[in-house]
Structure formats: C-alpha cells, structure tokens
Specification:
mainly alpha, Ferritin, elongated
Length: about 210
C-alpha cells in the first residue's frame, strides 16, 4: 500500500531554483504561471476601465445629489467612489506585475468598460444606475474568476476581494433604494383625507310669549 507521502507536494528545491533563474526579466511571472498572460492582461484592462467609469459616475452623483435624503446618500456615493479607486489601483498594479501596461487612456474608456456612465436625473435614478453598474461588475468579476480557476491564484484572490466589495456596494444601494421608495403614510392612502366641515348649528328659535 502506497504511503501518503509517496507523491511530493512541492517541486524539489533544485528545480525551483533553476526555474527562478529562467526569464528573470519577467519578474513575478515565473515558468510556473499557467494562465494566458496576454488574455489576463486584456481582461484586467477591461476591469480597470470599468472601475474608472464607476469612480467617475459615483463622483458625479456625489456632487449632484440633492433632496431630502441627499446628504447621507451623497456620503455613500463618495465612499463607493473611493473604494472603486482602490480597486482600480490594485488592478493596475497587477497588470504591471504581469508585464503589461495599464490602459488609462480617456479615449475609448467607455467602450472598454463593462458598465455604463449614466448621469441620472434624480437621486433615485442615480441609485438605480449605480446598482445596475454594481450588478454588471459582480457578474463580470465572477466570470473572470471562473475563467482563471487555479491558473493565476494571485489575480484570482485579488478579484475575489474586489467582488466581495462590489457585492457589499450592491447591498448598500439596494437598501438605499428601498428606503427612498418606501411610501409615506400620505401616499400609501393614495390621497390626503379632506377635513370635513363642522356641522352647522340650527338657528335659535325666538322664545314664545
């Protein structure tokens, strides 16, 4: 009966050392890297464009928010914008690690991005458009993670962290939207109850003589 240690878990040290010296100019990308690097860089640049568009949209919504609940919603927009910027920075850094170039060119940014830049005409519209964009990002990152599998664990872990944050954003926006669309007691009845006039008193009769 074969022992559980018959198959070595790690490559022997001599082979690891030899591998590390091959194509040393490729930095973090070693011969053990299994993914198609060019494809991964293209996918990450599309994700980078998506994050940049999200930052710009959230920033506009932050400054254009107005209305009764504008202050708290605007603060949420700003927090999301800052977190999307962190995602963009992480993605750009990973592209460089893989030997690629992050594409920050304004030209074609909207075309490269998965989500859209929609200004929104009201606070509710802004929340809805941001929620749609987050849902697009969630599906997009989930697909990239499935594509990578175990071929690029570093990129996979990074995207899993970003995906978790996008899901949190979507939950935040869904809660905001439900709060904003909650009917008031007045609108729930469909109309404002009119005040009935007080019944008029009958005229006093003159006393009989």
């Amino acid at each position: 009966m074969a022992g559980k240690h018959d198959k070595p878990f790690l490559t022997d040290v001599k082979t690891l050392r030899a591998r590390a010296r091959q194509r040393i100019e490729q930095g973090a990308v070693t011969p053990g890297y299994k993914a198609d690097r060019d494809t991964v860089i293209d996918l990450l640049n599309a994700a980078l464009a998506t994050e940049i568009v999200c930052v710009l949209r959230y920033k506009r919504h932050h400054y254009m928010a107005s209305g009764i609940n504008a202050q708290s919603v605007a603060a949420e927009f700003l927090q999301h914008a800052n977190e999307e910027q962190v995602h963009a920075d992480e993605i750009a850094a990973r592209i460089v690690q893989l030997g690629g170039e992050p594409d920050f060119a304004p030209e074609g940014l909207a075309t490269r991005a998965h989500s859209e830049y929609v200004a929104g005409t009201s606070l509710v519209d802004m929340i809805k458009e941001d929620l749609v964009a987050e849902r697009i990002a969630i599906d997009s990152y989930a697909e990239i993670i499935r594509y990578l599998g175990h071929d690029d664990p570093t990129t996979t872990r990074m995207l899993e962290g970003i995906l978790a944050m996008e899901e949190e954003h979507a939950e935040d926006l869904s809660t905001l939207l439900a709060t904003m669309q909650k009917p008031s007691a007045r609108s729930a009845k469909g109309r404002v109850a009119k005040t009935r006039p007080a019944p008029s008193k009958p005229p006093k009769r003159a006393p009989r003589r």
